[in-house]
């Protein structure tokens, strides 16, 4: 595809009410820095119906331009409609790079766009940078089951595309709105949209557990020994006003449901405080919580890898430590 600008684009996924999903706003933070290194502007792409709330949020969080496509056919995400719109926009404006949140929809959309535009796609990135000599994006993602981190570049084709995990980057601070808003009148015929949503069935746990937006997370791993082992973790979480997380081992064992899972195959989180209880610290789990501001690890094994990333460590039995910790916090709050 012909490159017509040095702009970097961020796809802003919208909710049913027209507001922006958090991951899109988070990507404006690295996007701004990367666009500057590439010598271009940061442009946000918003597709949806009645998306004024998303436009206002994106403008307040640092975008230079906002390209908006609105229509009833975009009320709910569909692969056909959204792919067709972005293909037309990319061919018209020719950006050099584009970031997409690695949500369910983003993981569906990214490969379709890459195929249409005959370019590459790096999926599930956890770190981003720019090689300033070449302008290539350095996409970093877990590889080989999360046992190492690979940095990938796409030197020969444009635009450079990548999906980025939610929670990896902090949302930029709000500033005075200055974004240029560009409205594109693009409509996709119903006959070109081959799927339709008949019914939305919401999983209650997934709706009520917001790991990605949580400020404090208390997580349990294999060391909790069973579903009943999450009782002291839930008690501590309640005192702290925290959200309960879990490692893949605990979820795979059936001790707690998947919406609680933190890690490479779960949610990527970046809370102010992350308390890991009975979690050894496999690299797959660390990939999902390493951007936490403060990490406290509680584990019986003094050589557990989790202590290597922890700011504070307690070597001991979580079933002895957590009740004492919970009670002391309760007294302090009282």
Low-confidence stretches: none
Q: How many angstroms does the end-to-end distance come to? A: 63 Å
Structure class? alpha/beta
Please tally the helical runs, counting DSSP H or I stretches of 4 or more residues. Answer: 9
| Gyration radius over CA | 21 Å
Shape: elongated
Side-by-side strand order of the widest sheet: 5-9-4-1-2-3-10
Residue-averaged pLDDT, rounded? 90
Order of helices and strands: EHEHEHEHEEEEEEHEHEHEHEEH
Summarize the amount of helix as a percent range: 25-40%
Give a quick account of the main beta sheet: strands, pairing sense, barrel closure: 7 strands, parallel
Please tally the β strands and state the result.
Answer: 15
Strand content: 15-25%
Keywords: Electron transport, FAD, Flavoprotein, Transport
GO molecular function: electron transfer activity; flavin adenine dinucleotide binding
Binding site for FAD: 222, 247-248, 261-265, 278-285, 299
Domain Electron transfer flavoprotein alpha/beta-subunit N-terminal: 8-197
Description of the molecule:
Helix content is 29%, strand content 24%. With 334 residues, it is α/β, with parallel strands linked by helices. The protein has a 7-stranded parallel sheet, with helices on both faces. The chain starts with 7 loop residues before the first strand and ends with a helix. The model has no long low-confidence stretch (mean pLDDT 90).
Q: Helices, strands, pairings?
A:
Layout: E1 8-12, H1 22-38, E2 42-48, H2 52-60, E3 65-70, H3 79-93, E4 97-101, H4 104-117, E5 121-125, E6 127-131, E7 136-143, E8 148-152, E9 160-164, E10 180-183, H5 204-208, E11 216-220, H6 231-240, E12 243-246, H7 248-252, E13 273-277, H8 283-289, E14 294-299, E15 312-315, H9 318-333
Parallel strand pairs: 1-2, 1-4, 2-3, 3-10, 4-9, 5-9, 11-12, 11-13, 13-14, 14-15
Antiparallel strand pairs: 6-7, 7-8
